[in-house]
Amino acid sequence: LSLALGTIASVLPKDFKWGTATAAFQVEGAWNVSGRGQCIWDYFQSFPGRIYMNETAHVADDLYHRYPQDIQIMNTLGIPNLRVSISWTRILPTGDVNNVNQAGVDFYNQLFDALLAAGITPWVTLFHWDLPQTYNNFTNQSTWLNPDVANKFNDYADFCFNTFGNKIKHWITMNEIQTFTWIGYGVGTHAPGRCSPSWGSWCAEIGGGGNSSTEPYIAAHNALIAHALAVQTYRNKYQKAQGGKIGMTISSAYAEPWNISEPQDHNAVDVAVAFQYGWFGDPQVFGHYPKEMTDRITGGRLPAFNESMSALLKGSYDFLGLNYYTSSYVHYTGVPGDNFGNDGRFWSSATNATGHLIGPYADSTWLNVYPPGFRKILRWIKNRYNDPHIYVFENGVSCPGESQLPPALALNDTFRMNYVFDHIMEMVDAVLHDKVKVKGYFLWSLLDNFEWTDGFNVRFGITYVDYNNNLTRTIKDSGYMYQNLIQSLGETTGSSENSIGLSERF
Ligand code: PNW
């Protein structure tokens, strides 16, 4: 194996970026410390029944106070890049740039300085779902349904480029628009908690109502416009002087036909991926939504970009981002697309027509392990978008039953080790055989953290956080495996000693 890794190392680009990823709301805590304003997740999580055991992210991993220790973990493992997000309301408590919280700005300056001093490059996501609560007025013109929020986001992005751009050279405007719009405005189980009455009674109580068949598309449309405006701002005012790069990251499952001998099910695969990656990839590359979507989303429910916005979106990326976790089987139904969930005229399932499971379940209900889907989605992106530079900004897994284990046993996370290793090998195949230009890989996540509706009950970390014992951090076996992989495959070419270390583990 060590020999194989040595060969593989020469396949990846010399400047390949290895990292881990985090998000502000999930790790920082310090929710009401030093002038931080409230975001829609602070509000959402205060409703009983919305989060597992009614847990909150008030403290989370307390990274706000403990980041020096977490940087130490990165250093111990030799991980050279960290993806973090900025909490909009920590620096702009009401969202508005005329109301700056200097303590929040100071925090991020200290965090970035400490990372850089440790030789770790910070990559920054501007929006990882924690929208200012001031933009939530519980109407159909609220939050991302309001086109003006795109302008507010652009102002916030401008402020961040101006304030941190001398230190930050990689910007990610948005994390997974599909996830926060589909679940936040369709299913209603993420903030701001909007959905049709038939989807959940809580949506009237929390979000003020909703319409699951229209609002995800409207919210996503405005978020795409926000992205385009922010990229324009960066390019016009900062990029030349600061020399950084900007893009977005998109979550997408891959798909396989439910019935292998049914041509319509093969076609449904392409439609399913176009409805996920294509929803946000096509506007950035081509300036409009995928034909697969415009053909199927009937009744004027999918907004269209006007000419100037289309022109602004087209080419609004220096790289394309991918968050890949899982895949499913898809089956063509032919049901006309006028109900939420039927727009693609397919349904998806973890099992196929013969009852075969696509891959083992993780600890998250939506996550089945399917490494081949990783190579296939990378190839799909390369082919559809004319061979762009791609960064994998998230890939990772929750281990079945992990939260029920005593800490000492949870550290032996073989399930995660296999997941990470298998996925990295699929990525290497995509680079070696399919010539996909993958430029970096960020493992989700550095730490166990607040896993949204699952609270602390689902763990994605390569570092264990003991929520019953002062948030003590302990590196899991997967962390040491990742250390060995990076040393063998990574920027610092692995010594034979490191490679032997890895082969001993397998
Ligand atoms: C991501 N899917 O969300 C988020 O970016 C993270 O904040 C989160 O902690 C992580 O995944 C683990 O859940 C996703 O259905 C949610 O394919 C759903 C999917 C993918 C990513």
TrEMBL record:
<dbReference type="GO" id="GO:0005975">
    <property type="term" value="P:carbohydrate metabolic process"/>
</dbReference>
<dbReference type="InterPro" id="IPR033132">
    <property type="entry name" value="GH_1_N_CS"/>
</dbReference>
<keyword id="KW-0326">Glycosidase</keyword>
<dbReference type="InterPro" id="IPR017853">
    <property type="entry name" value="GH"/>
</dbReference>
<dbReference type="Pfam" id="PF00232">
    <property type="entry name" value="Glyco_hydro_1"/>
</dbReference>
<dbReference type="InterPro" id="IPR001360">
    <property type="entry name" value="Glyco_hydro_1"/>
</dbReference>
<dbReference type="GO" id="GO:0008422">
    <property type="term" value="F:beta-glucosidase activity"/>
</dbReference>
<keyword id="KW-0378">Hydrolase</keyword>
<comment type="similarity">
    <text>Belongs to the glycosyl hydrolase 1 family.</text>
</comment>
<protein>
    <recommendedName>
        <fullName>Beta-glucosidase</fullName>
    </recommendedName>
</protein>
